Amino acid sequence: MKSFRSRIKRCSLLVIAITISLFTLQAQQKQQIKGLLIDQKSNQAVAFANVTLLNTTDSTLVGGTMSNAEGEFCFSPITNGHYRLNVSIIGYEKVIKPIEVTNTIPLKADTILLQEKFITLDETVVAADRMKAKTDVDKTTFFMNKKIYDASNTGIDILKHIPGIQVDIRQNISLEGSQAIIILVDGKERDRNFISQLNPRQIDKVEVMSAPDSKYDADVSGIINIILKKDRDSGINGHIYAEIPTSKSEIYLFPTYSLNYSFKKFNLYTSYNGEFSYFDIDEKSYRKSWNNHGTTEINLNEYLEQKNWSHRFHYGFDYFLNPRNQFNFYAFYNPYSREHDGSIEMQITGTEESDGHWATQKEDSDINHSSFYSLKLFKVLKFN
């Protein structure tokens, strides 16, 4: 009996030791990265800077955030490894800092000094304009300036200058590394296609909410509200933007245009945004099989071109009954296609019964259509 109790005691101690080890290992694998951004000249905190964390091995984005009003930022949880910290903000030189995460909790990136960015032309020194921002309890508001307008061709380009917002090559928009966001224009929910056709000079400011309140779904991680200028010029105005492809085998194009007519309380508009994604796909496969009759080899070659295109035509009007009430009509028509065209060849060698060559030409004819209509009479509310 005593020997049995002794074995039970040893097993219990072993289970406790394993449990403690697992908790310790888990705590060691998840760390934090904290840092502070300071203006090198004024020694003041730099708020609303865009801070991203990349994996050094493959340059993948681990996370994105922006410094708060006190210049502080934090990434959590982070696994052990080697990373590259990028800090950027209009008016300052970009900073790249290597970070190694080990079992130290928390890991501090120390104080990072930011140096003002200057452009020298002969004997003239021009300091870059800084983006003005205002922090409230529930959101941060970023105000546009001439430098941002001059560097932007579309509404999507405007968002690239906002700290915490990332736009990839396919023009997908994310906030602090998450695409589970809601995009609003003057408080009305829109999508990235609507944003891409906006004339950047129509935009007055951008409001960012990184922690939405309870009136939004739990899976929504952020809100971006684009505020357009209220005092629009009467008459006709618009813009056209297009890109020239530099490669025949790989094309990503996003042309846009907009045309707007305003008169007193009435605003009529139409716009377009296109998406073209063409690139080659070459795939080769080899198979070898054995049976009682001998060996069979199969070589399959595919030479395809993926063709994705979309034309979205927007149109609508706004009628401003008074400063607090609007009558709004918005619609779009969108033909689009997803095709794979090219040739496929298969060569079979082995026994005489299986030898042969097979080839075919693949031509897709895929055209789809979608449309949307919205007619609303609504009261203009403040974005909270």
What brief labels describe this structure?
single chain, 384 residues, mainly beta, Immunoglobulin-like, Ferric Hydroxamate Uptake Protein, Chain A, domain 1, 8-stranded antiparallel beta sheet, 4 helices, 11% helix
Protein described:
- Mean pLDDT is 79; it is low at 20-28 and 121-128.
- Strand 8 (118-121) and strand 9 (124-127) form a beta hairpin.
- The strands form six sheets. Strands 18, 19, 20, 21, 22, 23, 24 and 25 form an eight-stranded antiparallel beta sheet that branches. The protein has a six-stranded mixed beta sheet with strand order 10-11-16-17-14-15. Strands 3-2-5-6 form a four-stranded antiparallel beta sheet, with no helix packed on it.
- Helix content is 11%, strand content 56%.
- The chain has four helices and 25 strands.
- The radius of gyration is 29 Å and the shape is globular.
- The chain is mostly beta strands and 384 residues long.
- The chain has helices spanning 2-29, 146-150, 155-159, 192-196, and strands at residues 30-39, 50-55, 61-66, 72-79, 81-88, 95-101, 107-114, 118-121, 124-127, 132-135, 140-143, 165-167, 173-175, 181-185, 188-190, 203-209, 222-228, 235-241, 250-253, 256-263, 266-291, 294-322, 325-349, 356-362, 368-379.
- The termini are far apart.
- The protein has three domains: 31-114, Immunoglobulins (Immunoglobulin-like), CATH 2.60.40; 131-228, Ferric Hydroxamate Uptake Protein, Chain A, domain 1 (Beta Complex); 235-378, no CATH class.
